[in-house]
Design goal:
By secondary structure, the protein is α+β, with helices and mostly antiparallel strands. Among the domains are: about 190 residues, Multidrug efflux transporter AcrB transmembrane fold (Up-down Bundle), CATH 1.20.1640.10; about 110 residues, Alpha-Beta Plaits (2-Layer Sandwich). The protein contains 25 helices and 10 strands. A 4-stranded antiparallel β-sheet has the order 2-3-1-4, with helices on both faces. The two termini are about 30 Å apart.
Length: about 750
């Protein structure tokens, strides 16, 4: 057969020159591995926000007017504790002095080391005087220190018990980032293992042979390696956040395996209907490959909307997802047809015990009285009741989404038993005069020494002293007298709701009350203030991203199915499943319902990046199943004109495959939900439950019920849009004959007969 589209042409050319394609991808893989081994990565822990946020404006002013044009240096707060001695004991002082000297010995990395014994600052001593803080300030750029200063962190951790009865903990940007990276690497390995195991089991059941089950996994691993090599190379020239790694592995495993699953299944189906291997691959390229390309482009275009948010965490993980989807699609369209051509009917070798070779046609006429036929018939007998009940359930879950409280935390996403969180808890509990996350007030004016400005500063400090959540304050004036920096300790967790309320009081009440009559500009920064600003930025971006994704989805489905009704229904159903997943996030993570049972940590807020990422990714992924199902229904409807029979046929022909693909995604996302980082728990859980809802309530109930109620109106297209092109995303398998097979080539049944 001669291909008529680009995907069919790619598939046929790859199948005709398989060794050339395999060799080309092998070269790409070798170059990628060489890049990974030689260059390494420079993924950043810095969350660079290029939007005009108050906290960032304050940081810029501090750098320009107070720090000589450089950022505040990175610091580590090393906590030395004794079970029985106080800081006044000479033995305690000797332990601190020895550790401080070892840290200072790294003079190329450490700019200064400060102890209580040097400065006499009581803020560096705990309530009970059995703990003290060593402040190590790193030299150079704070972001370079994240990578370069790790030898100092290793030294400190090696001295965790410097003497009997003593313990050393450390807290700072370098150690927290290292803790995050260590946990993330373990989480990726665990999530990847769970996802691959689930995928292998599901595909073994779907296909019944080990070769067919293993091929998608092998290709996905290659796609992950190629994508990671590209990301690592890019990290040397662009500020890629370390979150890109988790995103590449999570999304890459899910879509890579699913895309290959659809193609392998279609090729085997076409072989069963009599096409030779080359024509079967071409036919799969003309149909299923086109659906894969459509789905991949939808995911990519949806994720492009996140680039509108000028936050490198969000743009990095979006870029990682876009990159791995693009590589997976390209590999599915080229390398997979080449390997299928080389394997031929050997794809059906390695029969799985008790399951055996599963005919692709088993989901069509062979199961006319099976589960999927029974399901569609039951729903379509009472379509209105089915529609109201299923939509009602999703709406109830969606109602909890309006209680979604999101923010962006840095420390509280770590496990409570991690060394960084133990250090943070000790710091907050034992050192009331010091603060790891202070609020910084920046007063900028031509002359900050004027009586009016000084009076305003004095009044503000007095107001803060009367607020129980604010602690001790320190003040520094720039040499040019054009800026005053005031650092104020917070009496509590800087990522708590109380801290957020305190910053909002400071900005909304205290500062306007004291500085309204001055010409000074006053800004608030610090970790808490930045979290407030970031959350506000994300809230502002939500309508823009939602509108972009919904518009693109509508246009793509309009062109694909030449119907106004189909895209409107698809958008409504996707909104319901996404809204329900938001609601479940609130119930499980914010309200704690079932959190302990599932091993999740209850939190005050859902991480700010999750609502945006969930929305864009889920709309793209759900399009995959929706297109696959509706295209089969439309194909049958065009042939028969029987709406009810077409829906039943569509569910029968896609039920087994889509259910398998959904189970794979749930396994992958669920594996990453079982991690130690709370943000990844939320993200993996949100994706997993959304896929479950989409593959069950939406596809099994809402789709057939709505199709039954609307009948032929499902395919309504206004006459003014008749000019839209005819694009057949997928179609019924071509019916060939045994004579069309290559001479001497066995059918799948023949292969099994051996």
């Amino acid at each position: 057969m001669n291909p008529t589209g680009i995907t069919g042409t790619l598939a046929r050319n790859a199948a005709r020159r398989p060794w050339l394609v395999v060799a080309s991808w092998a070269v790409v893989l070798v170059l990628g591995l060489a890049t990974m081994l030689t260059l390494g990565d420079r993924f950043s822990a810095e969350e660079e926000i290029r939007a005009d946020l108050e906290a960032r404006t304050a940081d810029t002013l501090i750098g320009q007017r107070l720090n000589g044009g450089v950022e505040d240096p990175a610091q580590e707060f090393v906590i030395v504790s004794s079970s029985d001695l106080t800081v006044d004991n000479p033995a305690f002082q000797a332990v601190v002095a020895a550790l401080a000297a070892e840290i200072a010995a790294h003079s190329d990395l450490v700019a200064s080391v400060e102890t209580y014994y040097d400065s006499g600052q009581e803020e560096l001593v705990s309530f009970d005087r059995q703990r003290t803080i060593i402040v190590a300030t790193f030299a150079g750029d704070p972001q370079d220190a994240i990578h370069d200063a790790l030898p100092v962190i290793d030294l400190i951790r090696a001295r965790q018990i410097p003497a009997p009865g003593f313990e050393v903990l450390t807290l700072g940007a370098v150690s927290v980032t290292d803790t995050f990276n260590t946990i993330a690497e373990a989480d990726i390995a665990r999530g990847e293992s769970i996802g691959i195991l689930v995928a292998l089991v599901v595909m073994a059941v779907v296909f019944g042979t080990l070769v067919a089950a293993g091929l998608p996994i092998v290709l996905t691993i290659v796609a992950l390696l190629v994508t990671m090599s590209i990301a690592m190379a890019v990290s040397h020239v662009a500020n890629l956040h370390m979150g890109v790694v988790q995103m590449i592995f999570m999304i890459g495993l899910a879509v890579g395996i699913d895309y290959a699953l659809f193609i392998v299944s279609r090729v085997r189906e076409e072989r069963e209907h009599g096409l030779n291997t080359l024509d079967a691959i071409t036919r799969a390229g003309e149909t299923s490959s086109k659906a894969v390309l459509f789905s991949g482009l939808t995911v990519i275009v949806s994720l492009l909307s996140l680039l509108l948010v000028r936050w490198n965490l969000l743009t990095s993980i979006a870029a990682g997802a876009i990159l791995v989807v693009a590589v997976s699609v390209l590999m599915t369209l080229t390398l997979l047809p080449a390997i299928l051509s080389l394997l031929g009917d050997r794809i059906n070798r390695g029969k799985v015990p008790f399951i055996g070779y599963q005919r692709a046609a088993a989901g069509t006429e062979a199961t006319a009285h099976g589960f999927w036929n029974w399901t569609s018939a039951a729903v379509m007998r009472r379509p209105l009741v089915s529609l109201v009940a299923s939509a009602g359930l999703l709406l109830v879950l969606t109602s909890f989404a309006f209680q979604l409280n999101f923010g962006h935390e840095t420390l509280n996403i770590l496990p409570e038993d991690s060394s960084s969180m133990r250090a943070f808890s000790t710091f907050e509990r034992e050192f009331p005069g010091a603060d790891y996350q202070p609020v910084t007030i920046v007063v900028a004016a031509d002359d900050v020494t004027t009586p009016a400005t000084q009076q305003a500063i004095t009044g503000l400090l007095g107001q803060l002293a009367s607020d129980p959540f604010f602690g001790a304050a320190t003040q520094v004036t720039a040499e040019g007298a054009d800026l005053v920096r005031i650092d104020v300790a917070l009496n509590g967790d800087g990522e708590s709701e109380q801290a957020i309320d305190a910053v909002q009081r400071l900005r909304g009440e205290y500062i306007p009350a004291h500085f309204a009559a001055t010409d000074a500009e006053v800004y608030v920064t610090g970790d808490t203030a930045l979290m407030v600003d970031t959350t506000s930025m994300v809230r502002s971006a939500l309508p823009i991203v939602f509108a972009f994704v919904l518009t693109i989805s509508f246009l793509l489905l309009l062109v694909a199915f030449r119907s106004i009704v189909v895209p409107l229904k698809a958008i409504a159903m996707n909104l319901l499943s996404v809204g329900a997943s938001y609601g479940l996030l609130v119930l499980v993570f914010q309200k704690g319902i079932g959190a302990d049972l599932l091993g999740f940590r209850q939190v005050e807020r859902i991480d700010a990046f999750i609502p945006l990422m969930l929305f864009t990714i889920l709309f793209g992924l759900s399009m995959d199943y929706h297109v696959f199902l509706l295209s089969r229904i439309k194909e049958q409807f065009d042939l028969t004109g029987d709406n009810e029979q077409s829906v039943a046929s569509g569910l029968r022909s896609t039920g087994r495959l889509i259910s398998g693909a959904a189970l794979i995604m749930v396994g992958v996302f669920g594996g990453f939900a079982l991690t130690d980082l709370s943000a990844m728990q939320q993200f993996g859980f949100g994706l997993a439950v959304a896929v479950v809802l989409d593959a069950t309530i939406v596809r099994m109930v809402l789709v057939p019920a709505s199709m039954a109620l609307l009948g032929e109106r499902n395919w309504y297209l206004p006459a003014k849009l008749a000019w839209l092109p005819h694009i057949h995303i997928d179609g019924a398998p071509a019916r060939g004959t045994a004579a069309s097979r290559d001479a001497g080539e066995r059918s799948p049944e023949g292969a099994l007969a051996d």
